[in-house]
Amino acid sequence: MTPLQAQQLLDNAECVASADTVQAVINRLASEIAGKLAADLPLVLAVMGGAVVFAGQLLPRLNFPLEFDYLHVTRYRGKTQGGAVEWRVLPGQNVAGRSVLVLDDILDEGETLAAIRDKLHDMGAARVWSAVLTNKDNGLTKPIQADFVGLEVPNRYVFGCGMDAYGLWRNLPAIYALKDK
Ligand SMILES: O=P(O)(O)OC[C@H]1O[C@H](OP(=O)(O)OP(=O)(O)O)[C@H](O)[C@@H]1O
Ligand code: HPA
User: Fold this and answer.
1) How many angstroms does the Cα of residue 41 sit away from the middle of ligand 2?
2) For the residues 79-88, what does the mean pLDDT come to?
3) Of 21, 67, 165, 178, which is most buried by a Cβ count within 10 Å?
4) Does residue 83 sit within a domain?
């Protein structure tokens, strides 16, 4: 995709959550998470690469001790339809016996987060929590619900705030929906 095509993708998209809305949502999530996990010394795991913006903005708002690490799993790989879950970086061995909080940008069909939860349980996590910046309102019965949900987004392909469209635009501070084809 050329820079001009990438700009047109954004120009034709619809903003579904402003940058201010996203900031307010992350503030709320930080206080909800603190209410449940402040005394647990949790291991917080960002799901690369989509969670990078969410994690980067949430972590400084969590005012309690925690450990941070990451895992990398992918199933969209720059496309707008998901495929098989592919592990690129497994969680570290430090999950055993821990209260683990998984951070991700979006819960769409739920396959990714369910696979992560199962892997963490297999590795001996004492409790697996999850926080997602967005939950797609797609009417599906999902294999997992997140414990902490920022925003509901419509049943369209969304991008910005860590979420990519064709590999691009994770850097946007607001959330947009691709124009319907
Ligand atoms: O609920 P699901 O339908 O499983 O989709 C959600 C997952 O899809 C995206 O990752 P992606 O596969 O695009 O990986 P990436 O962020 O590394 O590109 C997103 O970051 C979530 O991890
Ligand atoms: O709508 C989406 N946008 C970006 N990444 C995603 N991963 C699953 N669904 C989406």
Assistant:
1) 30
2) 88
3) 165
4) no
